[in-house]
Structures are given as C-alpha cells and as structure tokens.
Design a protein that fits this description.
Rossmann fold; alpha/beta; single chain; globular
C-alpha cells in the first residue's frame, strides 16, 4: 500500500509553508491528505489562501474556530484524533508554531504516528509567548525536524535532539514567494487602493501587542505617528481589530484601515511598500527576501537571521516612528545577502527526505 502523509494546517502562516511541500510530494507520487483544522476560519484568512496558492481542497475541515489556548488546543486534539483513528497516516506533517501544530503533534505522539515538523528549531527564548511553548513541544515529539535557518540546528542540538533527525532544508515559505514572484503586482494594488508611489504597510495581531488595553493604545498611537511620515495601510487581523479600534485606531490623516487581504494581494502590497511595520514572524521572512525594510514591534524574534541577513529591525511602539524616519532616509540596499537555502527549493529537499524516510 502506498504510504500516506497527512498535512495538518490551521492558520494563515501554515498555508504558504505547506503548499510547496505538497507539490513536491505530489511530484513523487506519495499519497497525501490535507486536513484543515479551521483555526483560521474567516474566508479572508483561509479560503482565499488555498485559491491563491493552488492548494488542493482539504479532505476535511474540522472547523474548530477560536477560543482560549487551552480550549482551542483541546478541541483540536479531540477532532484530530477522530480524524486519524479510522486510517492513521504513515507520517503527520505539522507546520510552524500555531495551536494546530501543537495539537497535531500531541495526538500523533499518543497514537504512535510519526511526526515531521516543518520550521523546527526556531526560538525566541521568550517563555511568555504561547508560540514558544508550541515550538518546543512539537520539536521534542517530532521524528523529522526540518530547519529553515542554521541557528535552528544549534537550538535543536542544545535541547538534545539526535543529529539524524535534524534536516537543514531552507525555508518553504520563501518557496511560495519565489513561485509567485511574477504575480506580485504593486502597481495594481496601488491603483486598487488609490495609493501614492511611496507608502507603508502595517500588520499587528500578537496578544502581547493587542490584548492589554494600555499596550493597544501605545500601538494605536504608534500607527498614527507612522502615518504622519507617509501614507499607511493597515490590513486589520480580525483578532486585533476590536481591541485596536477600542484604543482609538481609526482611518484618517494618512492612515487607512482595510480588511485582511489574500496572499497575492498582500504580497503585492508589501513588495511595493517603502517599509513594513509588523509583529508577524512570516512577514519578517518575506520582507527579508523581497528587500523591503521591516520594523518588528517586539522585544525579540525567533527569526534572528532576518536581522543578520535581512532587512528586519526590532522596535518598540515609542521608537518605531524614529526608526521609520531613519529607514526612509536610507537608500534601498541593492545587493542583499539572502539567507542560506532560501532559494525556492526547500519543498523539494523536504520531499526527498520524506521519501527516503518512508522507504525505510
């Protein structure tokens, strides 16, 4: 019987990482199942990404939805166990650091199903981040650990992971950028949104930035100040919208709040931006590859390579406006130092490892 790989995805960042892996495994005629947990259930955060990335329709959409970390993870585990039980896959592939990743890793481990973790080894070393817990647990439970940057190998070795389980393959999220680069059209997005040639983009959604009213107010003030320097477009994540709006964030005076965008529209907007202000891990990587200055509103990052090899810089809400002014003064770098193996072929390298592992 042909072995089967089950891909568990649940949130926007997972889709860009899974798409190149699914394509590469399909080219090797390896049986696959795509399971969407429904952690991101808004069509603007989910369905449009499947369409933009050419992902197959999920075999099942569990529709778990939102909730507290414990409640959501528990619901995910119950639903995933019921999905796996009738026909356990030969390998469960999990992506990134969302609650769907943690839940699938735990369910697979308890059922004796081997697990592969794509984007293993990333560490912020900030135990207050729920994603940091998800990363650590998923790495400990995985049989195959696919690493996107060299420091990930060191981090896994430091926690005692056997070297033969660690595979430095590059970044599959960048595979999706490379595959769609010609489809990213800043001119079209400027015309659609009636933007001038020079504008900025901001995305803010992390609990550390939006859950506390005082912090949300600092973020709202920061975005208003950035918009004083140049027009600012803010696609608002559904999770953060009510909190930021309650803190006083509103359209006007160069600041425009819009609904979330699909993959192609958002990366088209980012590609043409003078700079990006964000707290997203994936956007730190995408701006690094595209050469767009990125200001990350966080105390730390699990992607330090975007600082050492890319365009990223950590800022606070208070320091961001000055950092914006500094970034706008600097000429755009012409010769970027792309991180190693961020070449558009990570999916193929992952598929090669998986195919060899399945034959054993």
């Amino acid at each position: 019987m042909n072995p089967t790989v089950a891909h568990v995805v649940g949130a926007r960042p997972n889709f860009m990482k899974a798409a190149p892996v699914i394509r590469a495994l399909d080219a090797r005629a390896i049986g696959q199942r795509l399971i969407h947990t429904g952690q991101h259930y808004d069509a603007r955060m989910s369905q449009v990404f499947f369409e933009d990335l050419g992902l197959p329709r999920p075999e099942v959409d569990l529709g778990v939805g939102s909730g507290s970390h414990a409640g959501q993870t528990a619901a995910l585990m119950v639903a995933l166990e019921a999905t796996f039980l009738p026909s356990p896959p030969d390998l469960a592939m999990v992506y990134g650091d969302v609650n769907s990743t943690l839940a699938a890793s735990l369910v697979a481990a308890k059922m004796g199903v081997p697990t592969a973790h794509v984007e293993a080894g990333l560490r912020s070393f900030d135990e207050s981040m729920p994603e940091e817990v998800n990363r650590r647990v998923s790495d400990l439970l995985s049989d195959l650990l696919f690493v996107t940057s060299p420091e990930g190998v060191t981090n896994l070795a430091d926690m005692g992971v056997a070297p033969d389980r660690i595979h430095f393959v590059g970044n599959p999220m960048i595979d999706s950028v490379v595959a769609n680069l010609e489809r990213f059209d800043p001119v079209r997005m400027r015309a659609t949104l009636e933007l001038p040639e020079r504008y900025a983009v901001a995305t803010i959604h992390r609990p550390s930035n939006v859950d506390d009213p005082d912090t949300a107010a600092r973020i709202a003030t920061m975005l208003a100040r950035v918009a004083e320097a140049l027009p600012l477009v803010v696609p608002l994540h559904p999770r953060g919208r009510p909190r930021l709006e309650a803190a006083g964030l509103t359209s006007g005076d160069g600041l425009r709040l819009i609904e979330p965008l699909g993959y192609l529209d958002f990366l088209s907007l980012v590609r043409g931006a003078a700079l990006v202000v964000t707290d997203s891990g994936g956007i730190q990587e995408e701006t690094t590859f595209l050469g767009v200055p990125c200001l990350t509103v966080r105390d730390n990052t699990e992607r330090p390579i975007t600082i050492s090899h890319g365009t990223n810089r950590l800022v606070t809400p208070e320091s961001a406006p000055d950092a914006v002014a500094d970034a706008l003064r600097r000429p755009r770098a012409s010769g970027r130092m792309t991180p190693p193996l961020w070449d558009g072929h990570a999916g193929e390298r992952i598929a090669a490892v998986v195919a060899a592992w399945l034959t054993r």
